[in-house]
Specification:
single chain; about 80 residues; alpha+beta; four-stranded antiparallel beta sheet; about 30% helix; about 30% strand; elongated
Length: about 80
């Protein structure tokens, strides 16, 4: 997913930033699924920082925004 890589690669090591469903042009349901896959895989250059923001859609809550920290690249 080039767009996600572009967002992460623009950040300095250790920087805290937001990734949202809107930034990736996804609806909350799709983004929620993607976030769960990222967390299972250990992130893609970032780690979760804080509690994910959730949006209620038809009575169900889906993650629509996360705050993450760029993982410091090993030297």
């Amino acid at each position: 997913m080039a767009l996600l890589e572009d967002i992460v690669n623009k950040q300095k090591d250790g920087a805290q930033f937001v990734i949202s469903a809107q930034m990736l042009h996804l609806d909350p349901e799709e983004f929620d699924t993607l976030v769960h896959m990222w967390l299972e895989d250990g992130g893609l250059g970032f780690e979760l920082s804080g509690v994910p923001h959730r949006k209620c859609v038809d009575g169900e809550f889906f993650i629509d925004r996360i705050t993450v920290r760029r993982v410091i690249a090993p030297k």
